[in-house]
Amino acid sequence: MTGFWHQIFNFADYRELLALVHNSLIAGAALGVVGGLISTFVMMRDLPFAVHGISELSFAGASGALLLGVNVVAGSLAGSLLAALVIGALGSRARDRNSIIGVLMPFGLGLGVLFLALYKGRSANKFGLLTGQIVAVDTPQLTWLLGTSALVLAALVVIWRPLTFASTDPEVAAARGVPVGLLSPVFMILLGLTVAMSVQIVGALLVLSIICTPAAAAMRVTAAPRLVTLLSVLFAVCSMVGGILLALGSSIPISPYVTTISFVIYLTCRVIGRARRLDSPIGNGYHFRQRIRRIGQPA
Amino acid sequence: MTPILAIDDATLNYGSRRLWSHLDLTVRPGEFVAVLGANGSGKTSLLRVLLGRQRLTSGTVTIAGRPAHRGSKDIGYVPQQRRIDTLTPLRARDLVGLGLDGHRWGLNLPGGGRRRRIDAVLGKVGADAYADRPVWLLSGGEQQRVRIAQALVAEPALLLCDEPLLSLDPRSQQEVTALVDERRRAEGTAVLFVTHEINPVLPYADRVLWLADGRFRIGTVDEVLTSEVLSEMYRTQVDVIRTGDRVLVAGLPDPAHFS
């Protein structure tokens, strides 16, 4: 039994190990910030399924690059952006979008599996693309990750208000002159970049724990937009950095740690959200009164 | 007095179909004009033209002295009530805030002045009690009050209401219309009120623009809502029946939408 736990949590030589993952921690924190921000828009625009679809295509791109012996990050980016733009262009309505993603996703995953099967190199590289890796962030890669994070962050700051308007209230936003149609592909590109970054660290299968769960959790406890954003970033950074710190020393990939922290935060927020609904001014039996009013009304 | 809205000899085709032609309409500050007509008669297209989202086939539209254009700060827009997704991270005050500066680039910095303006307009429409409540928890009537605050917060000269009464219960319909009427009297905001529901707007409409099958009539309620005028426009027998303070229109080709 101790052997089992030892496999999952092993803090021997922790100080030395910590020095090794210095780069990963910085990358994780940066990804947490960007992922937390972008996930609020993913929730507002109802795109979690799209995130999953993009990450599978990103995986296909990365494994293709691995097979060809070219830059894996570039491959992952290419797959990601292509998927993001296709989904953005073809699926403006939710039903269209979901069916396109449902078609693209298994195809991407299948391609990725094919490339990996043909690849004769180290198997750790293969597994890492799907489930994440932690020690693998070298300095050039870190530079790339930080540069992309900065780019996404800067773009988000510029389009923040109109993107919020277009994402939550598209009809009135359009009436007020917000370029709703233009913001959509711009956001998909930013999302593609963020997904490609996440694939490098948490792996293609678990991107949603960074680009969906944090905001989904935050939206359970508050409707104040500024607080949702703040909490979402906080949750994402905690999951990323906490996941890396816990995974350190074990032989297990980073992703189960990240996803578990992220999931526990979500559950906690649901419980808090439910409790608040009963005794806060926001809730205060409001749902119940609404239901009574509806029953009392003629249909 | 210079008009807020001047439509001059305007024609709009939709593909090969003519929605309306040679339309002239001038709206003065504080005037309440109801736009009535069946589905597909070009009511929504008229609003799109005013919002600068659709070009006229011919003619001109001037709003507060300038040609209609996208993102005009002179226009406030009230859409029809529709369900807002559960858990959307917006409170009533945030929705109003979007009406104030949601179209601007950059971040929204917290500030006292902005907050005061939002509080003031929420107070004016009587929505202060639920200013901090999530918008998706609001009832239809409450949501429309907040929508009106959202449209008014930037102090527009012209208020465009696009079916704001749809799917509201009769009491909320009455309250929302009365609220719009109150604002135009207090602030001199001109109102163009597109609706299927005739009766809620009857007490307030200074004039009616009725669109039908490429034809239109403009005039006071008494001038337009008569059996003769409507029968002529629709080329079929239409009866306008007045009972007390209500009007019933019978015999329209598309009767389901009128009450």
From TrEMBL, chain A:
Localization per Swiss-Prot or TrEMBL: Cell membrane; Membrane
Topology with regard to the membrane?
A: Multi-pass membrane protein
The molecular function terms in GO held by this entry are:
helicase activity
Question: What sections of the protein cross the membrane?
Answer: 20-44, 65-87, 99-121, 142-162, 182-215, 227-248, 254-273
Q: Which InterPro entries match?
A: ABC_BtuC-like, ABC_TroCD
Keyword ATP-binding found: yes
Gene3D superfamilies this protein is in? ABC transporter involved in vitamin B12 uptake, BtuC
Q: Which GO terms describe its cellular component?
A: ATP-binding cassette (ABC) transporter complex
The GO biological-process annotations, alphabetized, read as:
response to zinc ion; transmembrane transport
Q: Could you list this entry's UniProt keywords, alphabetically sorted.
A: ATP-binding, Helicase, Hydrolase, Membrane, Nucleotide-binding, Transmembrane, Transmembrane helix, Transport
Domain of life assignment: Bacteria
Family, per the entry? Answer: Belongs to the ABC-3 integral membrane protein family.
State the name under which the record lists this protein: Helicase
Origin species, per record, is Paractinoplanes tereljensis
UniProtKB/TrEMBL annotation, chain B:
Q: Which UniProt keywords apply?
A: ATP-binding, Nucleotide-binding, Transport
Which PROSITE patterns does the entry mention?
A: ABC_TRANSPORTER_1, ABC_TRANSPORTER_2
Q: Where is the ABC transporter domain?
A: 5-238
Return the CDD domains for the record: ABC_Metallic_Cations
Return the Pfam families for the record.
Answer: ABC_tran
A molecular-function term among this protein's GO annotations: ATP hydrolysis activity
Gene3D superfamilies for this protein: P-loop containing nucleotide triphosphate hydrolases
User: What family does the database annotate?
Assistant: Belongs to the ABC transporter superfamily.
This protein's name: ABC transporter ATP-binding protein
Native source organism of the sequence: Paractinoplanes tereljensis
The root-end lineage is:
Bacteria, Bacillati, Actinomycetota, Actinomycetes, Micromonosporales
